Amino acid sequence: MSTHPLPAALPAAWRGLVDDAAIFPPGDAPLHEASAAHAERRHSPYADLVGTFVVRDTDVPLLRGTPLALSVVLTGGAGNVAGPAALGRKLHVAVEGIEVALRDLDDLAGNARRVVAAVDAARADGVLDEHVPVYLELPAIDPSAGWRAAADVVAAAELRLKLRTGGLTADAFPTATTLASWIDAALDRETPYKCTAGLHHAVRHTGEDGFEHHGFLNVLLATRRAFDGATAGEVVATLEDRDGASLAAAAATEDLDGARRWFTSFGSCSVSEPLDDLIALGLLEDL
Predict the structure, then answer these.
(1) 7: how many CB neighbours lie within 10 A of its CB?
(2) What CATH number should be reported for the domain holding residue 139?
(3) Do 134 and 72 form a contact (C-beta atoms < 8 A)?
(4) Cα–Cα separations (whole angstroms), residue 83 to 55, 73, 116, 176, 268
(5) Is residue 94 part of a domain?
(6) Which of 36, 109, 115, 218 is 20 to 30 Å from 65 at the Cα level?
């Protein structure tokens, strides 16, 4: 955990940016250690940086009565939507996000419609509040007609997209061109999105694992520029930029607050690494 003290209220661009996914790879922290650390962060000087605590649906029973805001990753499909939300109510656990991966590669749009129907039913039954965002993770491939059709379903239902930006193998990291196409698809549909995996650091770099890691600051700036009408090539160039100083300078002048309407957050098994990077780049004050 970082020891850097920060003001109680961070700039809007950074508030809730990092969802605490400490229990997921490569961190793999034990659930109760991670939940205790998350609770401690909620009372730290940089608490505003941290969003929800990300868990699997199978973890919810183990968190009975904990005063945490959870994003729940479903281990099954559409049929699992109502269960964790209802259980959260019963156990007095705040479910503040649902995340579900679409796995029917032969009918992604149909898979998305099944999730939408389950979400609508859970809301109608009063087990899932209207304000709770639901993220649908599309396969980490170049957008096909089926991929785009599923994104259309997500947009029509006013749900959100989840984009996988890394993992434990090289092929889990999308190219800058692929990621730019996902961002374009989300913005074209006026659909907010979150990212997951691989974004521990602010700036694109080659990790100790030898893989090319995207930077969360690159993604935020790319979102801003794509929304402002940048070409596909310009968005790709932003995602590939490794110059932290120039990215930080741009972040200080471009409207990143507005970009957060679309790029809502990213899940990270580390909170201290993103925090330390923001301080090192001069985007947050080191008191």
Answers:
(1) 12
(2) 3.20.20.70
(3) no
(4) 14, 12, 15, 37, 25
(5) yes
(6) 115
**203-214 pLDDT tens trace:** 999 998 999 999
Of 200, 265, 258, 202, nearest to 22 (Cα)?
200
**What residues pair up with 135 in beta bridges, in sequence order?**
99, 160
Nearest partner of 19 among 50, 55, 64, judged by Cα: 50
Stated as kind and residue range, the H or E segment containing 155 is helix 145-156
For the chain, give the percent of residues with pLDDT over 90: 89
**E strand or H helix at 130:** none
Q: What's the token pair of residue 145?
A: 């007609």
What whole-number distance in Å separates Cα of residue 147 and Cα of residue 139? 8
Cα gap 201→86, rounded to integer Å: 35
Q: How many structural domains comprise the chain? A: 1
What phi-psi label fits residue 190: left (phi over 0), alpha (psi between -120 and 50 degrees) or beta? Answer: left
CA–CA separation, 203 vs 228, rounded Å? Answer: 21
Whether 38 is covered by a domain: the verdict is yes
Task: Answer whether residue 115 is part of any domain.
Answer: yes
Average the pLDDT over 99-118 and give the result: 96
Q: Where are the beta strands (DSSP E) in 102-183?
A: 134-137, 160-164
User: Which residues form the domain of 182?
Assistant: 12-197+260-268
Contact residues for 68 (Cβ-Cβ < 8 A; gap 6+)? 35, 38, 39, 42, 53, 93, 94
- Max Cα distance, the chain (Å): 53
**How far is the C-alpha of 195 from the C-alpha of 19, rounded, in Å?**
10
pLDDT confidence tier of residue 6, bands split at 50, 70 and 90: very low
237 half-sphere exposure, CB direction, 13 A CA radius: 7
287 in a structural domain? no
Q: How many CB atoms lie within 10 A of CB 231?
A: 11
